[in-house]
Amino acid sequence: MKKWISPSLLISTFALSAIGHYANWDHTLQFILSAVAVVFVAGFLGRATESVAHYAGQRLGGFLNATFGNAAELIIAFFLVKEGLYDMVKASLTGSIIGNLLLVLGLSLFAGGLKHKIQNFNVTLAGLNGSLMIVAVIALFVPAMFFNTHSITENDTDLLSLIVAGLLIASYLAWLVFSMITHKKFLDDVTADSDEELPNEHAPVWSKKRAILYLVLATVMVGFVSEWLVGTLETLTERFGLSELFVGAFLVAIIGNAAEHSAAILLAMKNKMGAAVEIAVGSSLQIALFVAPVLIFASYFMGDTMDIVFTAIELVAIGVSVFIAKSIIQDGSTNWYEGLLLLAVYLILGVSFYLV
Amino acid sequence: MKKWISPSLLISTFALSAIGHYANWDHTLQFILSAVAVVFVAGFLGRATESVAHYAGQRLGGFLNATFGNAAELIIAFFLVKEGLYDMVKASLTGSIIGNLLLVLGLSLFAGGLKHKIQNFNVTLAGLNGSLMIVAVIALFVPAMFFNTHSITENDTDLLSLIVAGLLIASYLAWLVFSMITHKKFLDDVTADSDEELPNEHAPVWSKKRAILYLVLATVMVGFVSEWLVGTLETLTERFGLSELFVGAFLVAIIGNAAEHSAAILLAMKNKMGAAVEIAVGSSLQIALFVAPVLIFASYFMGDTMDIVFTAIELVAIGVSVFIAKSIIQDGSTNWYEGLLLLAVYLILGVSFYLV
Amino acid sequence: MKKWISPSLLISTFALSAIGHYANWDHTLQFILSAVAVVFVAGFLGRATESVAHYAGQRLGGFLNATFGNAAELIIAFFLVKEGLYDMVKASLTGSIIGNLLLVLGLSLFAGGLKHKIQNFNVTLAGLNGSLMIVAVIALFVPAMFFNTHSITENDTDLLSLIVAGLLIASYLAWLVFSMITHKKFLDDVTADSDEELPNEHAPVWSKKRAILYLVLATVMVGFVSEWLVGTLETLTERFGLSELFVGAFLVAIIGNAAEHSAAILLAMKNKMGAAVEIAVGSSLQIALFVAPVLIFASYFMGDTMDIVFTAIELVAIGVSVFIAKSIIQDGSTNWYEGLLLLAVYLILGVSFYLV
């Protein structure tokens, strides 16, 4: 498992993808090169995250990873906002949320569950995450409902969007205070478990400083490669006749979350399910509670407010994902079959988006 | 309790109903005869199921019963599909799902709860069943949502229906692998409990072979009587001015599930709540994850695909039933009041369907 | 904390408000006087409730408080029904339900959580309350769904409303039987906890008889002051340009629930979270399962049946509140952050109602 993330392969695939991008090779070729590069870079990131998590404790490690993993998405979405492509932004935000809750979490539970019969994690944290997800769904659902059943002026829609965005960011900041400061210990019993396992594990390969350095480096590399890859998508969309909704919500999201994928699955297979869930759920929460509201404020400061009104289909996809994910994680215990269920829902949504 | 399922009463009511059917007596009389016969045949089935469950362990017994109980419904629905009565099929599937989740489960909890203050069962199984129910709701809800908010060609709707049906069957087969093979022991602690109770119970009346033979025989008899009874419904519908939606979703479903009713309630009263819940919930899951998809594929092979798009009211009825049932069983502990709540929701839906 | 509910302040603010009302002073002044009086009267009620709860056990005390707290609302709504203002009635019922589930519960969790890291209460009761809330939502949601997707005659709508109202009242009465008689002990372990704490607490100031007398007196005073205050709202609505929906669902509800607010928050801060939750959740359940159905029957006997069909926005507000509240209380453990989440949802709904 560890051998294939060899430095030479990592550097050469990254370099090839970079050359392909800057030399403007054929887009299909660029796509393949950067897709391959993403696999290695994300593997590097997963490795670095694990090392940092080793020093920082599982939860902080998971949180760091979610933050770093979403940095690429935030940058990409920011450029989309700048060009006024609000529908594409919302589609990719939707895809990111459901991709994390269904695909990343589903693969983690499935892969981890095949190796370990039952995997457990902090049930209190799972419950809190579930409640936070419901708040995020409500914050997206209520404005859309009012927008569709009442005549609201554009000004009021923008005002409502900004207020809801502000409340979401405030909730997110309060969550950081809660989970990192006032109730840190209370949510940390998973880390305690992993500490007990430490003697059985291999010693960390990298020093603390090096691990952090590599984490930053890997995140930057993922950001670059993701962007190169996304840059080829428009051409591919036309060549293969795919809808923008499908591309935004599935292809972009899958590639953009590749880092979380590999990191979460690796952790799940090492029976650190608490950290894997933290990555998948934490990442989707961060999209809904932090990335989306920040983009709304960004659009406001650029002079044309992006409203928070998602389409009915996007809301259904998000709502459905939250309900099944919440139902599955709330008992703090998972198995391969629950992973399969999440993947089945992801496929149903994927096929539906594809056929629209 | 056991004396009234006397062989003579069983055979004579069954014979009378058969004569009434084949001699083509008045339909109202036929209806009454077959309704009475159903009570005894279903009682026989419940008895046989219990005996087999005694040998097989509670969960396998519950599963067998759900399978056998739905055999009649599958056959009836198959003939309806053959005649192209797709709306009636969906109404009876809806009625079967909500009948099991609200009426069968409600009566079991209520009757069991009056005898036993609190009844407990495997909380892990309850959680998994809840997640499976949500997946079933999502699989029915998402296509309807896309169908109603986007213009999709009939071909694409059929394709989507077949894909979703395939995913549901795959989920169901994987569930069998999970619950029967990889995690059998993990879900079996209820059986373990019942084994401890065994010394206190009466010895099984029938041998293992005879119990299995009787289970098959009883299921066949239930199938016949149910069909005779259903055959009289059209006339009754006209005579008493009932809507087809109400007849399909309530009368047919109640009669078709009579077997599960009596079996589940008997088990609940004997404090084998795990098996009773397995019958009620397992049966409704089997309808949604197996019977409905099989019917879609059957219609496809007959040349005219039945789509998976249920009406808004049917989806609301199913969704509402799943939410309240999930909320009630998820703590693995029940009482008479929770049974009453399920029955209240069943009545609200019944009155609403009746008045439409 | 106890000193400010001095008898002289209580009596003088109440008297001033009474004089203002009967001497017909300026409405804005009346509003301010009665709003101040409400604070003191509600404080008196909270104190009396606590004393009675001391003798009666936490749960019965919480139930009594919910009953007494809703007396004012029932009287006010009754007069609105008498004048045929059905939309205002439904808006204020909606506001009362969400006000209890989000504002009262949210402030209790937040204030209690700041003083006590984690607060626990009977998880069985929390689960049952959650199921009851879902039944209430279903009972309001199903008729509206049928009404909006099918053509139903007014007579049938009225009939459906009366039947559903009857089922809700029956469910409520059965709940009293269940929680007070058949399963009293089972739900009482929170009281047991508080009994253990008793040695550490201050001795009750009032005798049992006096406590009960003061509870009745305080409730009557709250009823009067609430009514005087509500009487000034129409003028204020016009003066400050607020919509009736917002006033009915937020201002009236906040003021009408002031008693529950202070009582629940006081109990939460004293770490009697079981009683605080019982007040907030019990109060909203009583509105949905008892007050609303009684008003429907009252309107029927007055000759013009008020139907049970709430608007889409009201249903969304109620449904959303129930889901987040259920998600938060179902583990029987709360903290300040969960209170904050409830308040955030309350703000989102409030801003949305305000902007419509």
From TrEMBL, chains A, B, C:
It comes from Paenibacillus wynnii. Its main location: membrane. It comes from the Bacteria. One of its GO terms (molecular function) is calcium:proton antiporter activity. GO terms for cellular component: endomembrane system; membrane. This is Ca(2+)/H(+) antiporter. Residues 28-180, 211-349 form the Sodium/calcium exchanger membrane region domain. The chain crosses the membrane at residues 30-48, 60-81, 93-114, 126-147, 159-178, 211-233, 245-267, 279-302, 308-329, 336-355. It holds the Pfam family Na_Ca_ex. Ca(+)/H(+) antiporter that extrudes calcium in exchange for external protons. The keyword Transmembrane helix applies. The keyword Transcription does not apply. Belongs to the Ca(2+):cation antiporter (CaCA) (TC 2.A.19) family. Keywords: Antiport, Calcium, Calcium transport, Ion transport, Membrane, Transmembrane, Transmembrane helix, Transport. It is found in: Endomembrane system. One of its GO terms (biological process) is intracellular calcium ion homeostasis. It is a multi-pass membrane protein.
